Amino acid sequence: MAVQRTLCIIKPDAVAKGASGTIVERILRENFRVLGLRQVRLSRAQAEGFYAVHRGRAFFEELVTFMSRGPIVAVALEREDAVRHWREVIGATDPAKAAEGTIRKAFGSNVGENAVHGSDSEENGQIECAFFFAGMDLL
Questions:
Q1: The whole model's pTM is what?
Q2: Which of 3, 5, 35, 117 has the fewest CB atoms within 10 Å of its CB?
């Protein structure tokens, strides 16, 4: 299997709950290499840019408002099969349907406020990491 990059975003709901440290600890237990980590507050324009692929969908406005309402923690991750593994660790988008032991099951409230983001493909992992981290910012 190839080494891949993926992006974790600890979303405003999980940051507000004080779950960031626990989530980062889980990342390390899952043998991810943290290439970059930063806490930021996205402007509305930045959130719209990051989620531009969803523009026009019914949930876009709610998503952008949510993601710009408070601080987030962006974490660039690397390991073998990173995209698939991270998505397994975070669980289903709907925390009510997420498997026991997943991050979304533990910290998510609903489909909209589901604690964390994970890249959905290797290509998007590269693009999303670059959104938050310039090449020289990554280990």
A1: 0.96
A2: 3
